[in-house]
User: Fold this.
Amino acid sequence: MKLKQVVAIGGMLPLAAAFSMPAKAQAPQATAPAPAAAPAVPGLTLTSPAFEDGSIIPAKFTQSVTDFVSPKLQWTNVPPNTVSFVMLAHDPDVAMDKKIGDVLHWLAFNIPGTATGLPEAVPATASLADGTVQAKNRRGLIGYLGPGAPAVGPYHHYTFELFALDTKLTLGADATRADVLAAIDGHILGKGVLMGRFHK
Assistant:
């Protein structure tokens, strides 16, 4: 009986050993390297040689003088497939007529997509030779209206906004800011902003 038990137990040893042996470690599989992230592309950038972003706007571009003119503006990093630009300048520090609207100082659209800026002293005409259209400002006059915040009170933040569009607008000089904003909705490829401060 003892011999049979030993044989029986001995017959089980190989099976037990098989269960106790560690499994073979699998070789690590080579993984493909993650694709390199595309380099960040600078956004549409609006600047002026007349004043730096956030600085004081010189008097010649404001209502401090009678014959004020528009400042020279220039832009870089234009998005691909830009067809035209819109320039909108306004004073967000006021609320007109108890409404959310503020003071519109300049609205120009259909600036050619090949343009890289606007010259100083843009003529106050409804249409320019390159096809640019200028609408009426807050005073109901065509073209640029210089900043005119009163001396009493804080500086106002006059904001120039440039929109790059994938289309040309079918609007005339009688278009309002609301008309233009509605027309560009869904066509904006990029936006650049320049802000200057002023009070008399």
